[in-house]
């Protein structure tokens, strides 16, 4: 059976969990003998994938570039981003819902007109979907309650994690180091983390915080860290490649995902676990799903700097799962298992 996946970016075009998710699923599906899988997104593709060109230019130009027809004979079109990709043209349509695009934009501070337009676009593109895939029950509820989707056509399929790319290593000796991998925008909660960091330093004055990622709030967060007197202990690293990210995990004591809103699962938390590092996460969306079966105490209320500081201090004091326990838990999230669930879904849609 021929299946065509469409995304926004390949990992080569930009860092982040969604490009890695798209590539991870595509590579796992390609290993299956019962599927003929193709894929397209912007940027240099993974082996066997296709590209619509560089991830550059106007939004309208990229929309047009992405509307190239799927390969002849495609039975199922699996769309991972509402804005991009061709029409199904007789194929069954599976839509991956990675989050409410319009509401995420609102949380990031976009204007009302832009948010309203995005809401219209995503609803139009979701129309006609035969099945939806979400990574957590929390986002299944969002689809049903906010978009009026029939719960019977929503499948919850947890993601996999690249266990080879993110290898477990012992926690290094020396001053404790906390790693946060997030886009620098309001809904990611980096401002809350900076407020919490003062409480961490009160207990661990030698601790260091590395924030990996980029975004519109980089300058504001740099200034905020300086205002709080944290400039010597907080580093806004900027964007890095996956090899450097793996090294950052190996250098960390624990990690933190301080999101305020709209988290479908938090692939970054799984990557941390694969590297043997316990992630402290907020109780937003599907984030708790990444750690609940390992250590529910790693979950804290969102936007609560005091609770976040307390939990980080406890983790640095040693109240955290071991490297081996983190790695073993991450191994439950296998890409081949996720691919099997998708293959079953594709067969049902094509029947």
Automatic annotation (TrEMBL):
Residues forming the Glycosyltransferase subfamily 4-like N-terminal domain are: 87-165
Which Pfam families does the entry link to?
Glyco_transf_4, Glycos_transf_1
Ordered alphabetically, the record's keywords are:
Glycosyltransferase, Transferase
One example GO MF annotation: glycosyltransferase activity
The answer to whether the entry has keyword Transferase is: yes
Has UniProt tagged this entry with the keyword Transferase? Answer: yes
Domain Glycosyl transferase family residues, every copy: 168-331
Q: Which domain of life is it from?
A: Bacteria
Please give the name of this protein: Glycosyl transferase family 1
């Amino acid at each position: 059976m021929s299946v065509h996946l469409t995304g926004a970016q390949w990992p080569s075009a930009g860092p982040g969990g969604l490009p890695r998710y798209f590539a991870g699923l595509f590579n796992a599906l390609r290993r299956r003998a019962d599927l003929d899988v193709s894929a397209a997104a912007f940027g240099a593709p993974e082996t066997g994938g296709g590209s619509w060109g560089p991830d550059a230019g106007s939004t309208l130009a990229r929309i047009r570039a992405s509307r190239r027809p799927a390969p002849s004979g495609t039975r199922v079109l699996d769309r991972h981003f509402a804005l991009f990709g061709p029409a199904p043209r007789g194929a069954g349509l599976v839509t991956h819902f990675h989050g409410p695009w319009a509401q995420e934009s609102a949380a990031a501070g976009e204007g009302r007109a832009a948010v309203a337009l995005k809401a219209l676009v995503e609803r139009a593109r979701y129309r006609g979907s035969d099945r939806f895939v979400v990574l957590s029950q929390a986002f299944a509820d969002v689809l049903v309650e906010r978009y009026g989707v029939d719960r019977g056509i929503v499948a919850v399929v947890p993601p996999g994690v690249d266990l080879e790319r993110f290898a477990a290593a012992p926690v290094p000796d020396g001053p404790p180091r906390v790693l946060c991998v997030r886009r620098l925008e309001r809904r990611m909660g980096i401002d809350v983390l900076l407020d919490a960091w003062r409480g961490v330093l009160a207990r661990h004055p030698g601790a260091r915080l590395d924030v990996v990622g980029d975004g519109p709030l980089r300058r504001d967060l740099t200034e905020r860290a300086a205002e709080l007197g944290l400039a010597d202990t907080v580093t806004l690293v900027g964007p890095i490649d996956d090899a450097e990210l793996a090294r950052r995990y190996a250098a960390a004591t624990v990690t933190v995902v301080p999101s305020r809103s709209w988290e479908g699962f938090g692939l970054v938390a799984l990557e941390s676990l694969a590297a043997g590092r316990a992630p402290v996460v907020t109780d937003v969306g599907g984030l708790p799903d990444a750690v609940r079966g390992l250590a529910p105490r790693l979950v804290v209320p969102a936007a609560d700097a005091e609770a976040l500081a307390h939990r980080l201090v406890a983790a640095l004091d040693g109240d955290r799962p071991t490297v081996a326990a983190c790695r073993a838990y991450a191994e439950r999230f296998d890409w081949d298992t996720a691919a099997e669930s998708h293959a079953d879904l594709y067969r049902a849609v094509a029947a």
